[in-house]
Specification:
Blueprint: E1 2-6, H1 11-22, E2 26-30, E3 43-45, H2 47-50, E4 59-62, H3 75-95, E5 102-108, E6 119-120, H4 130-146, E7 151-157, E8 159-162, H5 165-175, E9 188-189, E10 191-193, H6 194-206, E11 212-216, E12 222-223, H7 224-234, H8 245-252, H9 257-260, E13 264-265, H10 268-272, H11 282-290
Parallel strand pairs: 1-2, 1-4, 2-3, 4-5, 5-7, 6-13, 7-11, 8-10
Antiparallel strand pairs: 9-12
Helix pairs in contact: 1-6, 3-4, 7-11
Length: about 290
């Protein structure tokens, strides 16, 4: 299979590349500059090279996007987040000479807005806010560009747990015993193990039954307080530090809602389609990652 990827050097992408190479896929990674982190078998191309390719890709896997939680959401930062998702996706489709057979693109549970009320399956009306707007425009950039010429799969991701990503930022504070409840702690922490993310993407490549939007979160949600307790336990540390909401609001402004609010998201379509999660329980996932 011929696979075009954006975000191949990222947390999910780098791990997915290894799985795709094992299956014999030919990978074209769209990069801004050549990376030594990718295996030599991966063909690294820039936008100018993409416009010259004449083959039809079996799949385009769209993983690109600046981290939404890396810094305050200033107007400039919001534009950067939009550009790295919407504008990049549009540019890829503009340059491709032939539409891919399958398009697999990421989104996030932020699509449902930053609320602590209700449960959300794929067709539940969302709350408002910048996170929803960002995800909505990102998803539309994919569906509008394909014009029904490709099979489209969009995964709305929760917090992806693995060796890297969000846990890399949390590990040191928790090891120092500084983990604990954020705000009320009752906001939902929608998580999914990296192995399940990779497996769902691989399934979506090969199984034409995958179509449309899917919530890619583990079936057993946890509140933020439950996550803090479980993660601290996996590191053999306490989780007794409470940080009130106003502290995060002061430090991070509007972006703090990612930490202090969270909707309960249900993987309804994946469950109905018969997908069996490799990691359904949070303690099981954290034990696999941290080894305790």
């Amino acid at each position: 299979m011929k696979i075009l990827m954006t975000g191949a050097t990222g947390f999910i992408g780098r791990s997915l590349v290894d799985e795709l190479l094992k299956s014999g896929s030919e990978i074209f990674a769209l990069v801004r500059k050549k990376s030594n982190d990718l295996p030599i078998e991966v063909k690294q191309i820039d936008f100018s090279a993409l416009s010259q390719l004449t083959q039809t890709f079996d799949a385009f896997i769209n993983l690109a996007g600046e981290s939404i939680a890396a810094q305050r959401w200033t107007l400039k930062r919001k534009q950067t987040l939009l550009n790295s998702r919407v504008n990049l996706t549009n540019r890829v489709f503009d340059l491709l000479q032939h539409p891919p057979k399958t398009v697999i693109s990421m989104s996030a549970v932020g699509f449902y807005g930053m609320t602590n009320e209700g449960e959300f399956i794929e067709n539940t009306p969302p709350a408002s806010g910048f996170a929803h707007q960002l995800c909505r425009l990102w998803e539309h950039s994919v569906t509008d560009s394909t014009a029904n010429e490709s099979r489209v799969v969009i995964f709305r991701l929760g917090v992806v747990l693995g060796h890297g990503g969000a846990l890399n930022k949390m590990r040191l504070p928790y090891r120092l015993g500084l983990g604990g409840k954020i705000a009320s702690g009752k906001q939902w922490f929608n998580w999914v193990h990296l192995d399940d993310v990779k497996q769902c993407i691989l399934n979506a490549i090969s199984d034409s039954a995958y179509q449309g939007v899917y919530n890619l979160v583990a079936p057993n949600n946890a509140t933020q307080a439950e996550f803090a307790k479980c993660y601290a336990k996996s590191l053999k540390r306490p989780a007794i530090i409470w940080t009130p909401q106003w502290v995060f609001r002061m430090l991070f402004g509007e972006m703090s809602t990612l930490l202090t609010h969270g909707p309960k998201v249900i993987p309804d379509k994946l469950s109905k389609q018969g997908y069996q999660f490799q990691f359904e329980q949070l303690n099981q996932a954290l034990k696999d990652i941290e080894g305790n």
